[in-house]
Amino acid sequence: MQTIKKSLHLILFLLSLVFCLGFTHSKHPFYLSVTDLNIQTKTKLVQASCKIFTDDLQGALFNWYGKPVNLEIKSKANDSLLAVFAGKHLAVFIGKNEVPLTYLGYEIKEEAVWFYLEGKAKSSSPTIQVMNKFLCTYVSAQSNVIHCTYNESRKSYKLNCPEQEYVFRF
User: Domain coordinates of the chain in residue numbers?
Assistant: First the structure.
């Protein structure tokens, strides 16, 4: 009975993945990620929260890794995939120094995956360079919105792929 349940679960997962991959581009009319950066100069703490549509992210991960990914199932393997993916697609520089970001985890809220990163800046500078190329190789119409809060001041910018970098000046 347990083997039948596992097989049925796998079949349903594969069918849903095929459905999502086959119709991803017609499922919603826009392709968007949102990254919230919070930088506190007093503590030099940099926090990032990134939101991407689940179906788009799973499709991009499938293209990138060559195997189906179901983020609805929490696992160490999914955390590892997202940690590497985030590290390759998001970078933050304060002044001229890159902030090493540590992946903290993810959660699914409604139709989107939120994943979280954190790092310590080496210095304080009102110049913040953000490289965000989430899904640019997966969907050419992808836009990546960045909200950057530096102490209590907030600025936003929308990167339209292939554009991948922006410099905030506070």
Answer: 29-169
